[in-house]
Amino acid sequence: MRYAVLGTGSVGRTIAAKLASLGHQVAIGTRDPKATLGRTEPDTMGNPPFAQWQSGHEEVRLETFADAAAWSDTIVNTTSGTASLQALEAAGADNLAGKLVIDIANPLDFSQGFPSLNPVNTDSLGEQIQRTFPQARVVKTLNTMTAAVMVEPSRVAGEHTVFVSGDDAGAKAAVTGLLVSFGWSEGSVIDLGGIETARAAEMLLPIWLRLRGAFGHADFNFHVVGARPAA
Q: What is the pLDDT along the chain (231 residues), one digit of tens a residue?
């Protein structure tokens, strides 16, 4: 399977490395590959320069958003939520049409200090992506935990939960299969319903951020206990 991972930050790098380790072909998409490779300082989140990371992951290609999306079978959006629509527009609607688009991003607005969500309550980034690219098969998942836990759920002891939201049942089944390959049990995957349920998944971020501050680390996750959803 060929995956285009849009975004060069820690989430994109983590997902790309995991996919490559599972034998998939992977291209990371960025706006300007030359500029990305030319950076020599850590990014705003303290991640080492991309060229340094890629030297240890030479099997992962770096392409423009459009070239990565055109080449891929599946697109994974790991860009900053406030820039996701622009990044996907740069990838090209024709290159997304008919393809599974896995949205991991959160629409966090840092302009007022502690981050808040925009949109929130009556809309979500997942829905905005689906509306903007109606021919794509958008599934929201993995946005409620840190990147390391996404690809190594055993970092958190015991059972814990990962959510999926989307309008296409086949796309959600494919994402569930991918999650299982990452180490998640099928029983840990909760299908929330259509893409509008991405609102709820995104709205977990404020409490996640507060828990991160309280714990002083990110190796935790949510665990839903009780009755399973009706079949």
A: 999 999 999 999 999 999 999 999 999 999 999 999 999 998 877 889 999 999 999 999 999 999 999 999 999 999 999 999 999 999 999 999 999 999 999 999 988 888 999 999 999 999 999 999 999 999 999 999 999 999 999 999 999 999 999 999 999 999 999 999 999 999 999 999 999 999 999 999 999 999 999 999 999 999 999 866 666
Residue 100's φ and ψ, nearest 5 degrees, are -75, 125
Three-class SS of residue 180?
A: helix
- Residue 5: name the closest of 32, 26, 22 by CA: 26
Distance CA 50, CA 62 (A): 10
Nearest to 7 by CA among 121, 124, 74, 88: 88
Nearest to 221 by CA among 179, 192, 188: 188
User: Beta strands 100-103 and 25-30: pairing type?
Assistant: unpaired
β-pair partners for 141: 164
Helix (H) / strand (E) element for 28: namely strand 25-30
Query: How far is residue 139 from each of residues 54, 59, 113, 175, measured CA to CA in Å?
Result: 27, 26, 29, 8
